[in-house]
Amino acid sequence: MDDFLIYLRLGFDHITDPRGYDHILFVIALCAVYTIRQWRQVLILVTAFTIGHSITLALATLQLIHYKTALVELLIPITILITAVTNFFFQEPKSRAAFAKPANRSWRYMLALTFGLIHGMGFSNYLRSLLGREAEIIKPLLAFNIGLEIGQLVIVSLVLGLAFVVIDLVKRNRLRWTLIVSGIVAGMALSLIIDNEYLGELLK
């Protein structure tokens, strides 16, 4: 059980580590168009992302799929940028009821699932470096993934909590909140893309 808790903590620390903020940016971009009243839609969205990255995290850690690490490190900020840019086309629902849904947003679930596949490969790089030649990897894999999810839910809670303060308590415009948050995330993602060494090699 001690090893299980160790890998659970490592998974949590990995996704919440501000020094490796790319995954944090992606979760923020996913949630930027939602309010705390729409937590059900957010839960479905996060679940789609979870399914995606759980699949490739398992397959890559078990070495059932192979890929270029440098390419994945480039694709991750690209997924962040795309997600943030889609937020610029957000349309605030006319109804302010608790269960109001963002218009034409069902495609976001498939986007989260697809991009989750890419992020899972990024998670696996870190996990495999931790495992080394350890024979038993199923339990560490499970613990690490659970840790990732706990950390992910913490990030989602913070984003929705801050949105509640800004939109509901301070009474700021919801669309402006979405555009500001998404713009900051898009700018940071673009910086990561430009600074990526693999992109530089491709452009030579």
TrEMBL record:
The chain crosses the membrane at residues 20-36, 43-65, 71-90, 111-130, 150-170, 177-194. It comes from Spirosoma flavum. InterPro entries: Put_HupE_UreJ. This is HupE/UreJ family protein. Keywords: Membrane, Transmembrane, Transmembrane helix. The keyword tRNA processing does not apply.
